[in-house]
Write a structure and sequence with these properties.
This protein starts with a helix and ends with a helix. It is built from 3 helices and no strands. The model has no long low-confidence stretch (mean pLDDT 80). By secondary structure, the protein is mainly alpha-helical.
């Protein structure tokens, strides 16, 4: 068999498979059987419970992330406040030391 003949056969197979897939996808039986396949009263219970559980966990994770970020910010602010207090304390001590030195130098 020549290369041209093999490529022709492959192209014909591809076109036939493509035509079969198009025919199957456009065939109207899907619209007839779909409502029968989807009818199940237990599916409603499943989807409602699934939505409630997923919503609860997603909301819980969101709240957890927000609270964790607030805690990080609070720790950071507390550290900054402690640093500021320490600097103020050191300035007061330095001021007292200088005033005592002046007082001792003035005598």
């Amino acid at each position: 068999m020549s290369v041209c003949r093999v490529s022709y056969v492959i192209i014909q197979c591809v076109y036939r498979v493509r035509g079969l897939l198009l025919y199957m996808s456009l065939y109207p039986l899907y619209s007839v059987f779909q409502p029968m396949m989807n009818y199940n009263p237990w599916m409603l219970l499943y989807f409602i419970s699934f939505l409630l559980i997923v919503a609860f966990f997603v909301l819980n994770m969101f709240v957890g992330v927000v609270v964790e970020n607030f805690h990080k910010c609070r720790r950071h602010q507390e550290a900054e406040e402690a640093k500021r207090r320490e600097e103020k304390r050191l300035k007061r001590m330095e001021k007292k030391r200088r005033s005592k030195e002046k007082e001792l130098a003035g005598r």
